[in-house]
Amino acid sequence: MVNWLHGSGHDLACQLSNSGLYKQDAGRRIGEQTEQLWSQTKAIAGLVRYMTKHHRRDFIEALLTVLGRDKLQRIVRLLETKYKDTQRLYDEYTRREEEATATANASGITNVWAAAEEWMQANLLRGKKVDNEEDSKPVEYVELLLHHVELKQLKRKAPALAVVSSPSAVTLTAASTDAQVARTAKAIAQAELKLELGPAAAAEWRKSAVTITSGTETPLLPDFAAALARLKQREVSRCQDRVEELVLEIQQLELRQAGAADKAAKTARKSAQRKRGQVRATLEEMYVWQQFGNGGDGARLTDSDVRGLFQPGSQPPWRAPGVTTAAQRMYHGRRFLEAAVHRARAGEELGILTVEKARLARWLEVVQVQLGVARAKRQECAGSVFLLDQHLALVQDLKSQLQHTSIPDPS
């Protein structure tokens, strides 16, 4: 099951494609109920693992029967509590959606749905930001060649790691690299087929990849150099967009931290601190791409420049002032989308719960009739009706509770 309501650490592209949170008419029940059932059975997991298959099945069936009987006794209260909680969540995420829309409008973004779609596409198609698919093939091919060369160099340098690491770590490094080299070589062969490169032309491209990573001044193949320039531009732009997005998130966390209680403020402060580290790491990645193939050190931001990035209203040096950037659109698009999908799922759940109330009422009517017939038959045979009377009293009590709930009837 894809992480449902607390899966922010899971792969975003996988979530956007598979999680019910982003699926229309999914409500909030599938993942949530599965997680609740998992948590209820977690306590007996250590015992079940030592049972035979037959005993394990009987034990789990008995446990689920107990859980079902316990839920039946409280089903109306559970239904009403879930409705009230869902209504509270619906109101909360409606407020967040309106707040995200207002903040985006203040930043010059009038179409928040378009910004949300841009953020989704950026994560679903991460690493494929070249507009023309034909033009992207040489860029992807160069990226694969560089990756392949670096992996082979890592394997050759693995024994030297024994100076600062243990021999077992060196062995693991070399072993893990073998599989990656094989996978990359297979991808390179497929890319060469797409580009329709013959053996001689492919050898020239590979030679250029070795040249650029070794730092020699041998002239590069013109097509390779053009694709490399576009690859560098793409990666530098990606790093810059990521830095801007992180900075906006840090500023939002600091605003939240100002008016929060001690525990919430501490959580926001730690999150902002982690994101500052991510900003510096992303800047280092950007410097690597800027300097790649130049044979020297490029311009770097000073510590004061980096600290200045976190100030409200500041602009990074690579952006013109007053211009709405892709990072800003994706940041505000993500905030809006997160609130919108939660509100939509909560709204769907409210409708589902009203239908569940009607279904429960019909089911209780049927069960009451069945219990009445069974009780009459048992009395004819002079049998005990004690257990049937208990079940009948429970059904009548549940019907009375259901009539006084605040859950509206389905429209």
Automatic annotation (TrEMBL):
Sorted UniProt keywords: Coiled coil
Name by which UniProt lists this protein: Uncharacterized protein
Pfam families xref list: KDZ (PF18758)
Coiled coil: 69-96, 236-263
Source organism of this protein record: Chlamydomonas reinhardtii (Chlamydomonas smithii)
Superkingdom classification of source: Eukaryota
